[in-house]
């Protein structure tokens, strides 16, 4: 259940990357992968590489994914900047 | 870097291969049958192709359309015969006076061939006559059950497909053409042939950021709800006992809870049942797994307070829920994998990722809504999630297909302009389809029973989310991704230069160049040589050119390798090229390559010592 909450939080935060200039490594899909991987990894790290089950899931568990998702998106963005991706604004 | 890329692709290929294996495993039987059928029907296909003068597509189409009929009818009859035989066998064993007693086995053991086998089986397996009779009866019943369910399921699905195909392709066409000839309908507008209205030029891509934000907020709330409240899994996913009871006196959920609380079941989940088949005062009580005394205790409590008219129960083990959940996850992952592969093959691999994201978006939003409203997640919900997956895909494919069509038509437009144009063309159709789909689902939600209501609710949320995601999630993601391709970057830069640094939402004609061009048509070679355009000449000029080209078709291929070689000696002066012998020939003088009968056959001299020692 916690995994579902982490993935949902990662996906939710990814939606707001549309307001950033698209300089992500791999474009908007790179940001998507970064957000999902970051949120899942952060959730796993905080919980000692275990996935809390249905009865152990609480509100904080969903919030645990936020730093991971932000870091994942930031990594994709800075890697894109390092590679010289030009900003794309539609 | 190249090594990492190769390693990545190897790992990706291995993952896809493993996924395909998982996906195809359940269909192994069907695939084997398909290969067998293809093997059997190939000679028929070749014969039909010859009969249709080389039109292999027509032959394949007719054969594919006829095969279900040729197989369906015999299989249905076979199923009916099997079912009748199995039913008769069960009835015979049950009702006749045959007893597998010791005398029967003793008689069988006297036979020379089967006697020792029967004796050995009885000694090793300790089979008594009663065991044998029970085993045979059970086996016959199992065969009957399987044959009946297979025949019934197969018959219903095949019949549904055939009827749907018939009504969609033939009946609608027949009705429309009849209507067009009747006097009742004079106006072409009645058949949809009206003047196209001016399309509204809405900047879908420009507005996408606000729709993205809306989705983000919904998902954020859903994630918090799942974290805080979790999903309310039904008894199908958890072990427990489900009691369905009809009471004599009127009661509500709280009164039922109060009645069973003294026995220690205050935390039971109580729902009022409604719909046809249950009375006005029926309830479903879901609790942890109950023992026989606990069930009796609940029944006594209800009897004492309200009077019990009927009392049924089901106990669901923990493994059932785990199996259902595992199967559901595998089904969803397998479907997503197959869908992605199909879209990558049909469109382009970059089209499959937005589809994947859109489908994921729909499933997660539905889960979030379920968590937020605290609705029970049952096996019907899982079925609805899989249906949503299909529907969302269908809606996205409509949009993507139009984008794919418009890409070659708009060779100077930015990708966002192509998408905007495609969206404006299909949005009405997409919304109309979704509205028509939502109407029967709404009817199910309002008037269906409990199980159907669960199914309909998930489906309704999914259909709304699916329509929304195909327009406002999948297409913008595709646009953002494709606009990074060098060709679209160049176009975008050029368009911005031509329009004062701004890329218009819709393509505009600049410097006299048209916005739309006709898509390049595939040039098909004319294969008909039997009916010349000019009977006096024998063949047409095109056919003559084709024949000349055929005569030169066997030339040695030119060297394409670029490997550097050692410097070669100076070439000798090339001899004068032979004049083209076919240039001045008339069509009558040409000899076709297939016309081998006139040439003397070249035979290798026979090796007379073959196989003999020298």
Give a quick summary of the entry.
The complex is a heterodimer of chains A (90) and B (614). By secondary structure, chain A is mostly helical.
Properties at a glance:
heterodimer; A: 90 residues; mainly alpha; 4 helices; 0% strand; elongated; B: 614 residues; Multidrug efflux transporter AcrB transmembrane fold; Alpha-Beta Plaits; 4-stranded antiparallel β-sheet; two-stranded parallel ribbon; 16 helices
Which residues of chain A sit in consecutive blocks of at least 5 with pLDDT less than 50?
none
The overall number of domains of chain A is 1
Number of helices of chain B: 16
Given helix and strand content, the structural type of chain B is mainly alpha
Quaternary structure classification: heterodimer
Main sheet: strand order of chain B: 3-4-2-5
In terms of DSSP E residues, the strand content of chain A is under 5%
Basic shape of chain A: elongated
Q: At CATH's second level, what is the architecture of the domain at 207-230 and 322-495 in chain B?
A: Up-down Bundle
**Helix percentage of chain A:** 55-70%
Tell me the greatest interface. Answer: A-B, 33 and 36 residues
Order of helices and strands of chain B: HHHHHHHEEHEEHEHHEHHHHH
Cα-to-Cα separation, first versus last residue of chain A: 36 Å
* Strand content bin of chain B: 5-15%
Largest pleated sheet of chain A: none
Broad CATH class of the domain at 207-230 and 322-495 in chain B: Mainly Alpha
Largest sheet of chain B: 4 strands, antiparallel
Mean pLDDT across every amino acid position of chain A: 87
Structure commentary:
Chain A has one domain (2-82). Chain A contains four helices and no strands. Chain A has helices spanning 2-15, 27-46, 59-63, 65-82. Chain B has 614 residues and is mostly helical. Chain B is built from 16 helices and six strands. At the A-B interface, helix 1, helix 2 and helix 3 of A face helix 7, helix 11 and helix 14 of B.
């Amino acid at each position: 259940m916690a995994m579902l909450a982490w993935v949902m939080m990662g996906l939710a935060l990814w939606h707001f990357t549309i307001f950033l200039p698209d300089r992500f490594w791999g474009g908007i899909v790179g940001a998507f992968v970064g957000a999902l991987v970051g949120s899942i990894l952060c959730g796993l790290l905080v919980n000692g590489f275990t996935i809390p089950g249905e009865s152990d899931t609480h509100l904080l568990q969903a919030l645990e994914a936020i730093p991971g998702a932000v870091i994942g998106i930031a990594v994709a963005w800075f890697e894109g900047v390092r590679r010289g991706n030009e900003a794309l604004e539609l | 870097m190249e090594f990492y890329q190769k390693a990545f692709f190897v790992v990706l290929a291995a993952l896809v291969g493993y996924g395909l294996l998982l996906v195809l495993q359940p269909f192994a039987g069907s695939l084997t049958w398909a290969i067998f059928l293809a093997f059997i029907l190939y000679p028929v296909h070749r014969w039909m192709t010859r009969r249709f003068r080389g039109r292999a597509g027509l032959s394949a189409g007719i054969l594919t359309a006829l095969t279900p009929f040729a197989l369906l009818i015999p299989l249905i009859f076979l199923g009916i015969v099997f079912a009748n035989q199995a039913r008769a066998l069960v009835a015979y064993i049950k009702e006749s006076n045959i007893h597998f007693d010791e005398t029967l086995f003793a008689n069988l053991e006297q036979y020379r061939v089967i006697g020792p086998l029967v004796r050995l089986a009885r000694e090793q397996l300790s089979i008594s006559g009663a065991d044998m009779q029970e085993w045979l009866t059970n086996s016959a019943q199992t065969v009957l059950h399987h044959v009946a369910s297979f025949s019934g399921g197969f018959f219903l699905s095949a019949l549904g497909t055939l009827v749907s195909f018939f009504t969609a392709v033939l009946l609608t066409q027949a009705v429309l053409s009849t209507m067009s000839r009747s006097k009742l309908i004079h106006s072409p507008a009645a058949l949809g042939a009206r003047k196209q209205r001016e399309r509204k030029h809405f900047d879908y891509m420009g507005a996408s950021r606000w729709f993205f934000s809306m989705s983000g907020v919904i998902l954020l709330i859903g994630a918090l709800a799942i974290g805080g409240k979790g999903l309310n899994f039904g008894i199908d996913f958890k072990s427990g006992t489900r009691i369905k009871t009809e009471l004599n006196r009127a009661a509500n959920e709280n009164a039922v809870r109060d009645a069973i609380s003294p026995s220690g079941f205050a935390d039971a989940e109580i729902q009022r049942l409604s719909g046809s088949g249950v009375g006005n005062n029926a309830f479903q009580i879901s609790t942890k797994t109950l023992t026989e005394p606990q069930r009796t205790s609940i029944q006594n409590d209800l009897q004492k307070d309200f009077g019990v008219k009927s009392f049924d129960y089901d106990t669901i083990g923990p493994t059932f829920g785990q199996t259902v959940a595992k199967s559901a996850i595998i089904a969803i992952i397998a479907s997503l994998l197959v869908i992605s592969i199909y879209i990558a093959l049909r469109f382009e691999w970059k089209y499959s990722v937005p589809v994947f994201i859109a489908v994921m978006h729909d499933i997660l939003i539905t889960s979030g809504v379920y968590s937020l409203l605290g609705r029970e997640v049952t096996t019907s919900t899982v079925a609805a999630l899989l249906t949503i997956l299909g529907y969302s895909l269908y809606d996205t494919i409509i949009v993507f297909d139009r984008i794919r069509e418009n890409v070659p038509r708009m060779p100077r437009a930015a990708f966002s302009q192509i998408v905007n144009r495609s969206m404006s063309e299909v949005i009405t159709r997409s919304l109309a389809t979704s509205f028509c789909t939502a109407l029967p689902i709404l009817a199910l939600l309002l008037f269906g029973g409990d199980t159907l209501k669960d199914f309909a609710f998930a489906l309704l949320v999914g259909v709304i989310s699916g329509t929304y995601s195909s327009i406002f999630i999948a297409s913008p993601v595709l646009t953002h991704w494709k606009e990074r391709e060098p060709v679209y970057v160049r176009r975008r830069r050029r368009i911005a230069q031509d329009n004062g640094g701004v890329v218009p939402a819709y393509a505009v004609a600049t410097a006299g160049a048209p916005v739309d061009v006709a898509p390049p048509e595939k040039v098909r070679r004319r294969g008909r040589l039997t009916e010349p355009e000019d009977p006096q000449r024998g063949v047409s000029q095109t056919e003559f050119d084709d024949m000349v080209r055929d005569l030169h078709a066997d030339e040695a291929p030119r060297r394409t390798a670029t490997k550097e070689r050692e410097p070669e000696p100076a070439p000798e002066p090339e001899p004068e090229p032979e004049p083209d012998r076919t240039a001045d020939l008339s069509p009558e003088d040409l000899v076709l390559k297939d016309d081998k009968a006139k040439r003397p056959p070249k035979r290798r001299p026979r090796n007379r010592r073959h196989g003999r020692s020298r």
